[in-house]
Design goal:
Two copies of one chain form a homodimer. Chain A is α+β, with helices and mostly antiparallel strands. Helices cover 27% and strands 33% of the residues of chain A.
């Protein structure tokens, strides 16, 4: 695309569109570096202000990221993962052709606080097994997983190499605990210092937190997890059907307008 | 609970547990103010360092929030909303007994960029209608909604009072466009300056972004939305069933260990 200074379309927007088209066409690949400000000024024959405005807009659209002191890069696409069935990380990565791996941070026996106790339906203070792992896809850290298991099952699980064997597979195939379903709770939070360090992101970086409680065939909660996903690395998709609207538009009343007092 | 300085349990943890119990029991209500540092030092007869450590832990657990210069408050519980069917904001709030309202920021006719064009299956550059609203529950801002509609339908929709009538209801009941289903894409991002201002949160605050493309009965995309939810205000829940694991544990091979060269 040629930049046209006579056009009614602002110059920065023409440049923004041109760069966006190059990115969409793959001429600058994900992870690739954009030309420098100087180069763009030369190429388009415009002012620095105009180039900066175009770059800012591309950043706002999340097409690029500015790494301070390093340059401007095309964003890697987020991993897109279906949220339609209870699956573990290894299964999820296999489904999209990425190589999963795990780093075990440690295993502990802890006394269940209020939330863990509620999720596993145990009295507060009951001992449970806690496992912390960083999960990676093609060697990039994607999530920090905290797993809480009831004691007898948990003690058996942690005898295995948890950098290799998925906990779901161990539960289902080795310890005769097939899973039926799970409750998911999904929210956006800021990375606290520990999460930030483990996932190699800035403190307060956006994290997609999934809390998941998995149930065995007899509806007993057997695995409670907190999965801290890097917000810049992952996106979940699902398809939901419409059910009949619970009310009719005719039932919606505009707020009463305060009528002028009757003057009669 | 009495604080026991002789206990093996660290003092800060005893205080943390005591305050957490008060919060759980509702003795300090959501939105309520915790006693000041001075008051806690007096109450528990411990050092300032100990009180501060307890407070920090409660903040890390997201039970409280420290508002600089104002004090420490019990966090309001997040709104918990089901993510199991295609529903609009007004339906969602009605389902949990909250009063929905909306502030219309404006409506525009814009030329569809790459993403909007793809979602609505239109050529890039096609004119579409853009609607921006802030959605509120019980008068608190919950989400910023950007809606994109194909032109003819969109021009009809914006003739209505969009602070009162839900777009889904208008589509389905007034414009003969019943919805069948929608694709959801869910991710965590940081608030950009515009989103932060509209939702009254700090820049870079965590945002749960839902992009949603709704389809009419003939599978045509009729409504593409970007819903920027305040991360501190909402949580989505769903229940997913297990389907058979796609591989057996026996197929997982530990990484090959590099064998020492045969010395023969």
């Amino acid at each position: 695309m040629d930049i046209n200074p006579q056009s009614a379309v602002p110059l920065y927007f023409q440049i923004e569109q041109d760069l966006a088209a190059s990115i969409a066409a793959g001429e600058i690949a994900p992870g690739g570096r954009l030309p420098s400000e100087e180069e763009l000024i030369q190429k388009y024959n415009v002012s620095r202000t105009t180039v900066r405005k175009a770059i800012q807009e591309l950043e706002r659209l999340e097409l690029i990221e500015i790494r301070r002191g390093k340059g401007t890069y095309v964003r890697e696409a987020k991993i897109t993962q279906e949220l339609t069935a209870l699956t573990g990380f290894v299964e999820d990565m296999a489904a999209i052709g990425m190589q999963p791996s795990a780093k075990l941070l440690g295993t502990w026996t802890i006394s269940a606080g209020e939330e863990i106790a509620r999720q596993l339906r145990l009295p507060i203070g009951t001992e449970v097994v806690q496992i912390k792992r960083v999960r990676m896809a093609d060697n990039v850290s994607i999530s920090l997983d905290e797993t809480y298991l009831p004691l007898p099952l948990g003690l058996k699980i942690i005898e295995n190499d948890l950098e290799i064997y998925p906990i779901f597979s161990l539960l289902e195939e080795k310890y005769d605990t097939p899973l039926l379903e799970a409750d998911y709770r999904i929210e956006a939070i800021s990375a606290d210092p520990f999460v930030a360090k483990m996932l190699e992101v800035d403190e307060k970086a956006p994290i997609l937190l999934i809390e998941r409680t998995s149930y065995s065939l007899d509806q007993k909660p057997v695995d409670y997890e907190k999965l801290f996903y890097r917000g810049d690395k992952i996106r979940f998709t699902t398809r939901l059907s419409r059910r009949a609207a619970p009310f009719s538009i005719d039932s919606i009343k505009p707020p009463a307008i305060i009528a002028p007092k009757d003057n009669l």
